[in-house]
Structures are given as C-alpha cells and as structure tokens.
Amino acid sequence: MERHTITETLQRLRETFRTGRTVSFAWRRSQLLALRQFLLEQEAIIAEAVTLDFGKSAAETFLTETEFLRGEIESALRNLKRWMKPERVHVPLHYQFGRASVRREPFGVVLVIGAWNYPLNLSLVPLVSAVAAGNCVLVKPSELAFHTSKVIANGISRYMDNGALAVFEGGVEDTVLLLKERFDCVFFTGSQRAGREVMLAAARHLTPVILELGGKSPCIVHNDASLGVAARRIVWAKFLNAGQTCIAPDYLLVHRDAEEELLLLMQKAIVSFYGTNPELSPDYPRIISDTHFTRLEELLKDGLPVTGGDVHKESRYIAPAILRDVNPEAPIMQSEIFGPLLPVLTYTSLDEALAFVRKGNDPLAVYLFSASASVRHKVLDATRSGGFCTNDLLFQSAVHGLPFGGVGQSGFGRYHGRAGYEAFSYVRSILYRSVFPDPDIRYPPYAGKKFSL
Ligand code: NAD
User: Does residue 158 form part of some domain?
Assistant: First the structure.
C-alpha cells in the first residue's frame, strides 16, 4: 500500500468512527455475524491457504485456528449485550446524591498486527475483540503467511463493512511506514525485537499498545507424573505447527528418575503420530522461512539428538528433535526456540528446577506434569508467567474465558473473551450529580469551618 493509500484508508476509517455507527450494538453484532459467515463459507479456502503457506494440514487448521475463532465469535455474540452494560459504582454517603458508573468505550481507529504462525487467529481473534468493542480496525496480517494474508484481505473486503474495517498487506518496511500514522490503539503479536519497535513508534503518538510476544515456556515433569500421558501431550504440543507456537513447551525439565522412561515414551509418541519418517506425514508442517530454518539448523548443534534432527533445506523440513546433554548456557537455552527442537534438562530436587525457571525471563506459560496438589501449588507460587497449565499444554489458551497474554518480556495486555473486549476499550468514569444538597462547607472561605480526619 502506498503512503497516500494508507492516509486515505485511515481517513475513511476515522470518518466512519466519527459518525458513531460502529458504537451501536446492532453494528457490532452485524459485523460479528459477517465474520462468522466468512469463516463458515470460506473454511476450505482458508485451510488450503494455510497449507500453501507452510504445509499445515486442514485438520490442524481446524483444531488450532478455525474452531477457536468460531468459538470467539460465538462467545462475543452471546455476551456482547452484557459486556456493553455500564457497571454501577458505589458512591460514598458524603458524596450523595449521585450515581456513578463506568462505561467501556471504543478507542477509535485501532491497528492489529498479526504474526504468521497461526495466521488466521492472530489477525482475526483480535479483530473479533476490536469489533465487539465498537472500533474501526485496520488489520495487518503477516507477510510470511502470504496466502492466508490474501484470503483475510479478500474476506474482510467481501463480507464486512469496508467503511470501518480494512486490511493492509505488507512487509516490515510497509509496517514501519504504517506506524508513522496515529492510531488510537495498537495490538501487536510477534517477536520481542519487533514489539520493541512497535512500542517505540506508538510512543511518538502516545498510543497505547498491547504486546503479545514470545518467550521460553518451561515444562516440568515431576517423578510422580503419569508419564504415558505426559509423553503424548508434550510431543503433541511441541511438534504441532512444527514447534512454531508461542506457548509451545520450549524446553523440558525432567526429574532424573523419570528421564529414561519419558524419553522412550516420547520417541514412541513421535512414531505413532508422524510415522517413522515424519517428512512423509501430511500432519507435520514445514518451517516458515529460510531465515528461521537456518537459525534452527544452527541450534540443533547444541544438543545430542535422542531422536530426529534430520533436515531438508529445499523443503525447510526439520524432523521432530529431542535433544539431551544440553548445556544450560548454550544458545538454544538463551532465546525462544520457536521450532521442532526440544531440549531436555534434568533435575534432582524440585527447588533446583524452580530456581532454574526463575533465573530466566517470565514466559508466556509454565507447564507441569505431576499427580500432587502440593507440587502444583509450589510450582504455581514459585514461578511467574502469562498462563499456567498442569497435566496438559496449550489448552489454557483455548478456554475463551481465560485471559491470554504475557508478563514481563513475554508481553502485556490480555485478550480472548471478555478480556479482549476490555483490551480494545477505554474506561470512562461517569458521575451524575444531583443539584441538591449544595452545602456551604465545600466553598471558601474555610476559616471557622472544622476539617480533620
Ligand atoms: P515478527 O515479530 O517477525 O513479525 C510479527 C509481525 O510484525 C508481522 O506482521 C511483521 O510484518 C511485523 N513486523 C516485523 N518487524 C517489524 C518492525 N520492525 N516494525 C513493525 N512491524 C514489524 O514475528 P513472527 O516471526 O511473525 O512471529 C514469531 C514470534 O511471535 C515469536 O516470538 C512468537 O513467540 C511470537 N508470537 C506470540 C504470540 C502470542 O500470542 N503471544 C502468538 C504468536 C507468535
């Protein structure tokens, strides 16, 4: 999009917002219904686009994208009236008579910048929240998921209100240009590096930002865990999307007594999910770009493969790899892996594992496999993260009522369900005062009037 087209599009969105039409319940509902229509009618086209982008199967797109997006739309449709209701606030006796409430109002024209790894959801779930909150929205899907970006652009222009909602397709340079414009809120999903740039650009306009970033989410497997289930669930969560999931378990911390058995069970799980040669499995995606492929190929050297690690440069294939003998100081343990490599570290006492987790930056998620409630409480209390899940992984992000987001370096701000509605609204504090009573004590002169606590 040229600079003048950006300006024109933003002018159009701003003018629409000024008319006030996006604030009405009827408009919000109609756009949510339109988005649902797009999703239902174009489901096959969407799945095909995601497959073209990085070889992800239609089944996985259903499980991790379309089904969740549909749920978010349904949840917004079901709850919108309630979310929009002003909330009454108590007025103390000495400020009577008056009626106080808070009302959530839309920011105005907001920008949503999506990442490529769940290319539909990361652009359209924030759109659901932003529309539910009554905003005009410019969506910038990731250029790396090129085909999905096209489907989103076509879908929004065909199904939705083009006066209020638009798509901007472009790469990093275009986005830098876009961020020179003033928005009323920027919602960003992506890397910490780009998040910093987005925040700097937004600061020039004093625009509030929500940053959904990444991090190294640990998964602790204690010696009392049900190892069969743990192995299957860890393998599923790690190698889904070929490890390119922001809340994937980044590394394992396994109790020394459980290590051998868990490793064997995980190898079995890989074979049962993807066969002996995962390259032939229709359910195993590819790495999104050459840059990421080269980065991951380099990280493979940081451990001894228990299984996997074969690579195929032309198709950007990396076999699901479990690595042991990993030095905690090695590059693979310094930043988010974001690919199908799973380093396994061991511990002998839970305190040792927790100290290790606490040494790192706060991640998006902390996972734990254990049968014990006291271990569960101990790990929950001793760590910090955007989300926490025991005896499973990823599902904390699938429950619409659980706010989703990071803490510290993994980002700030929450969305999904009501949290998303709130993220795209500002709180307006409203007080209706009665003209009666109007006592003299509040007005000067104060001499002779008694004030004390
Ligand atoms: P990325 O930061 O490279 O790109 C994300 C988006 O930002 C893209 O639309 C891109 O065009 C844009 N962008 C890139 N550089 C920019 C810049 N300098 N200025 C403005 N915009 C810029 O990230 P990615 O490779 O698409 O996604 C991977 C990262 O995203 C991982 O770190 C992952 O953990 C994180 N992620 C987080 C979540 C979450 O919900 N917290 C979800 C998915 C991915």
Answer: yes
Does ligand 1 have an atom closer than 6 angstroms to the CB of 123? no
Residue-number span of the structural domain to which 333 is assigned: 218-404
Give the pLDDT score at 3: 64
Q: How confident is the model at residue 138 (pLDDT cuts 50, 70, 90)?
A: very high
| pLDDT attached to residue 108 | 98
Which CATH number characterizes residue 336's domain? Answer: 3.40.309.10
Q: What is the mean pLDDT of residues 414-422?
A: 98
By CB atoms closer than 10 A (0-12, 13-18, 19+), residue 346 is middle
- Say how many Å lie between the CA of residue 195 and the centre of ligand 1: 7
Q: Is the CB of 308 under 6 A from ligand 1?
A: no
Closest ligand 1 atom to 142 CA: 9
What is the reported pTM? Answer: 0.96
The angle at the Cα of 185, spanning 181 to 190, to the nearest 5 degrees, equals: 90
In a domain, 410, yes or no: no
Instruction: Tell me if 200 CB under 6 Å of ligand 1.
Output: no
Residue 94: its pLDDT value, please? 86
Peptide bond into 97 cis (omega under 30): yes
In 10 A of CB 313, how many CB atoms? Answer: 12
> How far is ligand 1, taken at its centre, from the CA of residue 196, in Å?
11
272 Cβ contact list (under 8 Å, min separation 6):
none
Ligand 1 and 203: CB distance under 6 A: no
* Residue pLDDT, tens place only, 292-329: 999 999 999 999 999 998 999 999 999 999 999 999 99
Query: How far apart, in whole angstroms, are the C-alpha atoms of residue 420 and residue 418?
Result: 5
Residues 205 and 235 in one domain: no
